Amino acid sequence: MRRPWRLLAEGTALLTALVVAFPLYWMVLSAFKPAGEIASDRPRPWTLSPTLAAFRRVFGQQEFGRYFVNSLVVAGSVVIASALIAFLAATAVTRFRFRFRTTLLIMFLVAQMVPVEALTIPLFFLMRDFGQLNTLGSLILPHIAFSLPFAIWMLRGFVKAVPEALEEAAYLDGASRSRFLWQILFPLVLPGLVATSVFSFISAWNDFLFAKSFLISDTSQSTLPMALLVFYKPDDPDWGGVMAASTVMTVPVLVFFVLVQRRLVSGLGGAVKD
Amino acid sequence: MLGALLVYPVYQLGLISLFRYTQAQVSGGEPAVFRGFGNYADLFADGEFWRVLLATVVFAAACVGSTLAVGCALAVLLTRIRAVPRLALMLAALGAWATPAVTGSTVWLFLFDPDFGPVNRVFGLGDHSWTYGRYSAFLLVLLEVVWCSFPFVMVTVYAGIRAVPAEVLEAAALDGASHWRIWRSVLAPMLRPILTVVTIQSVIWDFKVFTQIYVMTNGGGIAGQNLVLNVYAYQQAFASSRYGLGSAIGVVMLLLLLAVTLVYLRLLRRQGEEL
Which of A214, A226, A240, B78 could serve as a FRET partner for A15 with CA atoms 20 to 30 Å apart? Predict the structure, then answer.
């Protein structure tokens, strides 16, 4: 491409990056601003006197640390369980021919269309009947179920990409089925597993609806999104507190993303290649 | 387990939608009364339902269109630039992607806050309230939804373009094809499976938008002006304790999404693509 055009394209890219990153910058900035500057009607894009007061308010509020741990437990269990199950299920639907295989695949797609919010109603009754209301289990189980169809659907492409000849070679060399599964196939589809884990992690970490509906009375089981809204009252929001809580809630996801970033890009590319 | 936690609730959803199911039935005070399709009749006779349905379809279509346009344009842009600006854009996008929906919603609300937000200052809008008017509130939510969902499209399409062998593009360029022509006749067909995946996913996600609307318009806006089906169902069920009616809305949503996706898959199959 000619030089001026490339510079223009790069300028556009940088500008877009700035616009896209601005809300996050503003969030972190506002979390450190003293209350007086937040409530000023001339907001400035910097602060000269950063303070941790808003964070102190957040962590002093009820048991924010505990909500944080609760959220970690939920998201962690969902990621591990759904990665394992999705790996086995994806292998099953790609490597074996059986009756209803196509039906099953279509069902995985259909399952993603089910509006989770609508299912809150029957799930609420289900959890009540099993006595699971107000427990973290009531969040973990539905999240595993709802992240699985997408995870299986994406992983299928990765398993398919591993040549069947490799499998035959492994058996000829005397490898057992489980040895092939865990020592050969597993490392090969790991990038795909990472990409799908990102999705299940985010959906579990962000969940607002299940937490709002299933954890009614026991606030010690509450998760971060619920705790965040404590600061957000429509009439008189404590913006400093909201922004500090938002920062605390966003940082773990960002860390997770940065850790898996490279695998994610190659993973998404592979998933859809088939 | 899939069966227990997906199929069973869907079955229950359909079942509850056929009953009069309110607070009295939940606490076991009264038996549930079978109403057949009474809930659906109520729903279809209600003008508000049609208004919400229209709003949902238009809003979701706008979200999907904008997200795909922005995502694809930026993906093409990414392939044309050097490593440093590419990394900057990629990191910014990953940041937006990683932001939880609840946080994203509150941050965007704050940015557009009439009293303390920077946006109104920069554009000199005074204390114009974005969430007061119906369309400006929808616009605000749309911006947030596009912001947090274009990265998925961008990263996926970018990865797809990188997977197209360079020789193919060189050959096309040697044959004298223009940029537009290369995109339309070479890249687009090769990327079709990817575009299909991101389109279906976007439709599914944007049609079911919940958290953004719920948080940003405080549960559906003034007098429910910003309700979409999902929030509407939730409000009917959990706020008004009309679980039967809420379930009926859920069933309608499910059927709509199913229809859209089936039509899409049928079109694909006609073009000779395999699922």
Answer: A240
